[in-house]
Every structure is written in structure tokens, then in C-alpha cells.
Amino acid sequence: MEAALARRTPLERILINARRKLPAIVIFVFSLLLAIAIAVKAGPAQLLNVIVTGGMWALLAAGLALVFGVMNIPQFAHGESFMVGAYIGYAVFTALTSYLEKHPSHLLSILTPNVGVVAALIVGAVMGIAIEKIAISPLRQRNRSGWVMNTFLLTAGLSFILTNGTMLVVGPNFRGIPRYFDFPSLDILGVNVAVDRIWAFGIALISITALALFLQRTRTGRAIRAVSQDETGAELVGINLSSVHTLTFSLATAVAAMAGAAMLFMFQAYPTVGLRPLYLSWYVVMLVGLGNVYGAIVGGFVVALLEMGSQQFIGIAWADVIPVGLMIVVLLLVPSGIFGSEVKSVQEQ
Amino acid sequence: MLELRNLNSGYDFLQIIWDVSLHVNEGEFVALVGPNGAGKTTTLRTIAGLLQPKSGDVLFKGQSITHRLSPGFSIGGGGRPSGLRLGRKKRYRPASERSQLGISYISEGLNLFTNMSVRENLILGAHTVNDKKKELEALEFVYHLFPRLKEREKQLAGTMSGGERKMLAIARGMMSSPQLLLVDEPSLGLAPHLAQDVFRALLELRARDVTILLVEQNVNTTLEITDRAYVLEHGRIVMEGPSKELKANEHVRSAYLGI
């Protein structure tokens, strides 16, 4: 293909590449126009909201794409990781805040939300390792036929257990916090922005960058990518599959939990808080192409934009309908997703 | 260096190889030939650990590499057969350990990482090598052996031609500086001059003291370049001996060389 391309004139090459990437270009242009429309109608503050939620969906979707690409597992308990993170964030934050009331400290009050996020990250990681080792790894040893369907049922059942278990143990009440940081809103380019949102976006940005660098530059990250591309090949070069699987799963869970804690000011903690993030991250993953991690990151922002767009122009009741509708249209026209699926047929694995 | 003892292996309900015993001494270049479906790939996959044998053993440098005993305790004999073993389960060693032992398997399907560049594929080949310096040395060696790979260092593995991919697969296998190379039908699907390139590369590796077990359908060239050969038919070893002798053998000549 590359050789054939080399024989064409530069203009022809651009056009051929453009046609291959047409779905991505269409979405890019569409997103740009939508963003401008939103800014015009509702003001740039809403665009900032889009960026904040977009960052979170990007993180969630990236984890989901990673798990599907590397382990071929459709993770339907992903929202529960978010939920657990939210609860941990809440618990840590309220505990530290009541401590701070007795021993006020400016420094600590800034650190407190970050402690909650880190705690959620750790708890999420542990939870991920536990689930992988208890439920998934044994299944893999026993029987690999019907893997995708089986793991789907497994994770769906797990979701059920986790949501109802939480309801049983902690009760169905919403646990929320008014705000994370006690600072007045900042004024950025004429827009009033809450510090909480900037901080959440900062976390998303740092995490996404860290994830990308980890996957691209480190030995372990490379091993993870190798397993997602050719499991047998990875085994042959000496990569320990079970370690990679455990690591990938717990990474996805940890990141989702971190997102849950970081978004506590927007999404309160309650047993079923994870359902919407689950659906949205699955929309993203299906839209961009299964297993495509970097596409999922971009897709997170696109879906957040779509949400906001449908909210602004059609009405809040339609906020979920439009992304799903678009996904249906995209899958009808481009089944492998906008950016192309990176998962080989499961049977080949 | 490598010994197969009464190996029986196959898939689930279908047994492919029956009571296969063979050995490869250090520094030898041994061939395993036979018709399609004879079980040559099954044999290699069992050695590489991708398949678990139904019975029999694979020994590398005198040690069994097919299973390890999980920790437990035994009464009386300890490691000896006379002892009573309690609570020790035979667990199969994963294929990923073979690379660390010094065995590299170049599979028929190549199993390249198609969305990664040539260089990344090679670096991954040295995954078990913890020494950065050794890794770079191996890379240099491999580029010297296959200059065309260096030219296409940044090209995605999936976009390369068949011959180049075979080179890449062999090169990747060599990155861990293995002592034993298992090569599965490298000339399959290649134009004759490319197949000769591959065989030439294998001979050069052999000159550097790499022990090679080659599985091939191209019996003619294979018997030319190897020291010894085994003939596998219907999952059983039917003939073995120095390659020169086999080349002169009546059965081999009529069945495989078309003479």
C-alpha cells in the first residue's frame, strides 16, 4: 500500500489519505462547528463544562477501550468503578474536612481533595486486581469459548452485585459535597470558572498524558500494547500474559475510580451513579472503534460536546438520545467506528 | 540440547503427534520434514509451550520444561519417584517462560505486532532482556543480518511484504539472543529467491552457534543445508538420519523430492 502510494503525485496522496480518514474529518469539522454554536448560544462557560466532562469521559472510555482491546472483555461493571471512586472520594473528603474544622490549615484544605482522588485511585486499583484474579482469570484458565459473551454476562452480573450491595451496605442516599475548594471562582478570559472544574480538568489532563506516555514509552506499556495486538506473539517474546491482564484491568478500574472521586462536585455518590458514565463511555468506545484507546480519548470530548449540544439546542431530555442516535448512524455507515477498530476478530486470538 | 521423549500432543479431543522422540544437540542444524498435516507445527508449538502435551516430556538442556510442580509437600521420597507426593499439582509452565530459557519460536503465522513499527517489534523481541546495552547490541546484530529491516525501521509491520515479514519475525526471535531457534516453515509462500535469502540467514545464524530446529515442506533445500533430519508422517517419526543419507533414500526421494 505504501509502495503504491509512493507512485502517486502529492495531491493524489493527500486525497487518498483524506478519503481513508473521512469519518474522522467529518466528525472533527462537525465538532468544531458545534462548539462554536454552543459558545455563541450559551456562552464560553458551557464550553468549559464540555471540556471538563469531556476529560472525564475520555478517561473512562480509554480504560474501557484498553480492557476490551487487551483482554477482549466488554466491561459492563465499569460504571461501578466510578461509583466506588465517588464514595471513597466522599468518605475521605468529609473525614478530612471534619478534622480540618478543628485544626484549620490552609495547606491541608488544598491538599484534601487530592488525597481523596489518590485514595480512590488506590482503592480502584485494588478492586480491579481483586476482580481480575477472582472472577476473570479463573474463567480464562477454565474455558475460553464464548469468551466475549461470557465476560459480558460476568461483568453485567458484577455490576448488579456491586450496585445492590452498595445500596444494602451504605443505603441509597445521595452523598454529595457542595464544593471541593473554598476559593472564589476564577476569571479566565472573561468567563467565570469554578476552581473545582479547573482542578478536575487538570486531573484529567495529567492522567490522560500520563496514560499515553505510559503506553507509548515504557516497557510495560509496550507489553500491554503488544498483548492487544497479538497475544500469541506477546507470549513468544516472553511477556507474561496474566500479569499484563491483571495490570490492564486494575489500571482501567483505578482510573475510573479516580474520575469518580474527581467529579464528586458534579456527580454525587449514590449506588447507581455509575450507570450514566457506563453508558456514555460505551457510546464513546463503540463510536470510535472498539479497542482504540487514543480514539476513545478524543471521542470522550466529542461525546461531551454532543451532550451539551443536544442539551442546548434540543432540550435536556434529549441529551442522551442524540449521542446514541449518532452512534447508530455511524455504526450503520462505518461499522469499524470513526477512528477504526484496533481489535482483531476475537476468534483469531 | 533439546530432547523430546515420547511426546503425545494435540488439540482437545484430536491427538496429532504420537510417541514422538527426537533430539537436537548443541550447535546442530536439524530438520523436521514431512507432508502437510503431519504434525510438524504441532510438535513445535508443544516445544514452545503454546500447546500442552497429553503425555511425554520436552527437555531443554536436560531439564523438563513442560511442567513445574507447584509448591506442596511430599512424604518420604521428596523429589524421587518413590516418595509420596501430597498436595503437589503438576502445573504447566506458560509459553512466556520459554523465551527466558533461551528458546525462540518463529511461528508459521509470524505473530507480528502489525500496528507497531519494525523497530518496536524488535525491541519487544528483547522484552526479557533487562540489559539495555545487550538490547542495543542485539538490535545492531539483527540489522547487520537483515539490512532491509534497518531501511524500514519506522514502517508498520503490517504494511510489509511477505518476505520482509518473515525476516522481521526471525529477527525478532533473535533479539533475545536465544540458544535454540525453532523455525516453522519459513519459506512458505515466498518466491524462490526470497526463500533462499531466508535459508542463507539461517545458515549465518548457525555459523554463530545458534542451534536450530527447522520445520519445512521444502525438503530439497532443507536437506541440503541441515546436518540431520527427521521425517514425520501422520504424527509419527518414520525416518531419521544425517541429511545426506536421507537425500539418497528411496522413500524420501519418491515421496518428497519427486525423483
Task: Describe, in plain words, how this protein is organized in 3D.
The complex is a heterodimer of chains A (349) and B (259). Chain A is an all-alpha fold. Chain A has one domain (26-32, 43-348). Helices cover 75% and strands 2% of the residues of chain A. Chain A has helices at residues 2-6, 10-20, 22-42, 44-71, 78-102, 106-142, 147-170, 195-217, 219-229, 231-236, 241-262, 275-288, 293-313, 321-333; strands at residues 186-188, 191-193. Mean pLDDT of chain A is 86; it is low at 345-349. With 259 residues, chain B is of the alpha/beta class. Helices cover 35% and strands 29% of the residues of chain B. Chain B has helices at residues 40-48, 96-101, 118-125, 132-145, 147-151, 162-174, 192-207, 219-225, 243-248, 250-255; strands at 2-11, 14-24, 29-33, 55-60, 63-64, 67-69, 73-75, 84-86, 90-92, 103-106, 180-184, 211-216, 228-233, 236-242. The longest helix of chain B is centred in the last third of the chain and has 16 residues, at 192-207. Residues 72-88 of chain B have low confidence and may be disordered.
Q: Which tags fit this structure?
A:
heterodimer, A: 349 residues, mainly alpha, two-stranded antiparallel sheet, 14 helices, disordered C terminus, B: 259 residues, alpha/beta, Rossmann fold, 6-stranded mixed sheet, 4-stranded antiparallel sheet, 10 helices, 14 strands
**Amino- and carboxy-terminal Cα gap of chain B:** 34 Å
How many discrete structural domains of chain A? 1
The tally of structural domains of chain B comes to 1
CATH superfamily of chain B: P-loop containing nucleotide triphosphate hydrolases
Taking all Cα atoms into account, the compactness measure Rg of chain B is 19 Å
Strand order across the largest sheet of chain B: 10-11-12-3-13-14
List the helices and strands and how they pair.
The complex is a heterodimer of chains A (349) and B (259).
Chain A: H1 2-6, H2 10-20, H3 22-42, H4 44-71, H5 78-102, H6 106-142, H7 147-170, E1 186-188, E2 191-193, H8 195-217, H9 219-229, H10 231-236, H11 241-262, H12 275-288, H13 293-313, H14 321-333
Antiparallel strand pairs in A: 1-2
Chain B: E1 2-11, E2 14-24, E3 29-33, H1 40-48, E4 55-60, E5 63-64, E6 67-69, E7 73-75, E8 84-86, E9 90-92, H2 96-101, E10 103-106, H3 118-125, H4 132-145, H5 147-151, H6 162-174, E11 180-184, H7 192-207, E12 211-216, H8 219-225, E13 228-233, E14 236-242, H9 243-248, H10 250-255
Parallel strand pairs in B: 3-12, 3-13, 10-11, 11-12
Antiparallel strand pairs in B: 1-2, 1-4, 4-5, 6-9, 7-8, 13-14
Helix pairs in contact in B: 3-6
